[in-house]
Amino acid sequence: MLCMQNISKVYRTESVETHALREFSLTVDEGEFVSVTGPSGSGKTTFLNIAGLLEEFSNGKYELDGKDVSRLTDRERSRVRNEKIGFIFQSFNLIPELDIFDNVDVPLRYRGLKAAERKKRIERVIEVVGLGSRMRHLPSQLSGGQQQRVAIARALAGEPRFLLADEPTGNLDSAMAGSVMELLTDINKAGTTIIMVTHEATLARRARRNILVRDGRVSSGQTMHIASAATA
Amino acid sequence: MIRYYVKLGVLSIRKNPVLSALMVAAIATGISACMTILNINYIMSGNPIPHRSDVLYHVQLDSWDPNQSADDGGLTEPPDQLTYVDGTALLQAGEARRQVLSYRSSRVLQPSDRDLRPFEVSSRSTTGDFFPMFDAPFLYGRGWDKTADDTLEQVVVLGKEINERIFGGEDSLGRTVMMNGDVYRVVGVLDEWNLLPRFYDVSTQPFEEVEEVFFPFSVSIAREVGGSGNTNCWKPWDDAGWNAFLNSECVWMQMWVELHGADEKQDYMAFLDAYVESQKALGRFPRPLNNRLNDVMEWMADQEVVADDVQVLLGLAILFLIVCLLNTIGLLLAKIMRRSGDISLRRALGASRNAIFSQYIVEAGVIGFCGGLLGIGLTWLGLKGIEVLYRQYEFVENLVRMDWVMIFAAVVLAILSALGAALYPTWRACRIHPAAQLKTL
């Protein structure tokens, strides 16, 4: 469902060229839970931004659900992001002045769904993440773990084809991190494809496959299927 | 989505109360300065009699000295008013559907209640057509007819205020009042009559209220009641008496005629020209033929009822509004840059550039609406300030009123101004990259 071939991303300033990704190739199949690890500056986040159509790339080919997304207009990219991709960020990225219900509502508003349909979806996903009694709470009234659950609910509300998670437990303590990872595992088991960037090896092992990124490339020989390790 | 964007706009204002308050204040200040002057301009330039303004014509005959200007317009402009000789000649000819000859004067009214002291009232001596032609509103009775004009009937029409003052506001038809020693019978009492400007006589202050009492023109002339408006003469007259003054070349009365359609106007102009030619044969009217017929709005423009000072002030007020809007642009930019994380997030979650544009434009509209409401309050204060500042001029209170049109205009102008100011900041908001701020949120 996600296929990148020889993707390059170069950031240019007047005096410097930075190659964030070099001939980056990766295929992720439907239903996979893939972790992406690598040292700081290796290109993990750039990969995730490109995968999520948040950034354009310099060269290469990217197919999503069998469709080439290299040449989409800004409006088309927005629609693909809204309909097919769910984002989970390290710092949750909830809108502080909106309550939980309205935060989860944000992507659905841009989908143009009717109010009754939105309400049904929002209530369902908030129940899934275990915050059914807190729908009208503001983010500031929740713990970090709960806020990340809201972010996961927001990502799930649009019923995306895959979730992109950027260090989803980076701002959480180990207990909360474990709880969030369990939730992501359950979501993956329910059929949603997940690509998770992390620099924590223990969390990476919870995925079925780990990709090691180094110097903007998928590090040769480091791609490994660890589904058995994750379940062991 | 508009409701959603309005909700976000209100939430954003609550989230940044100081910045939002500054923007609202900037817009409100600019709007109030603009609306204060615009309001005065609007009242000054309004059509005082919209349903009849195109059938009422002010008459000018160029009876003036060929070597000096009648007014400020130079040698080619006829005087604004008529001589008694010409006015009465046109009146007696009766060539128009209706005609009104009038002049302003002041009289002393002696109340029948001996406890009340005599007091001065403003009055207008006019012909009977004045009331139907200018659509004067009556509370009781009506004006007088041509017979009353011809037979010198001592009748009077009172204004509402004067009727309240001397008769307690009751139906005073048939009762009498004494003015300058003569007794007049009340045949009509006017209702409130707010003519702004008082178009039928702009030779003095056009924004003063209509006169307090009205007398038949013929009676006033017979009683030798002189005018209290402008009297301009270019030729000395031989005798010092009243009749000599009446027969002089002094202009001091205003004439209006009612004409329907271009043909009637053309015919009446031909009549005026023929009249002047006949007078030229008698040695009068030394200037070339130059008669004028202006309808109400043409006459208001000719007389520059809206003073140049007000136009200059309006220009300055608009400049001030622009300065306020430039400040608003800066504040909006600051606000949007502070919210770039929110914009990045919404873009990541599927908002198109159009959606972001709409959200921030609607938010600017909400700020503009608040600015408009505050602006109305400040405009009212501005108008009150002008009233206090110029309270020595009675007419000023007529210029500092606000009606619903101007209140609505203030809000619309504020919203449009805010939307205009928001265009550049909102465009910048649309350019914020979806991935730009997500790490730092």
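Residues 2-231 of chain A form a domain with the Rossmann fold fold (CATH 3.40.50.300).
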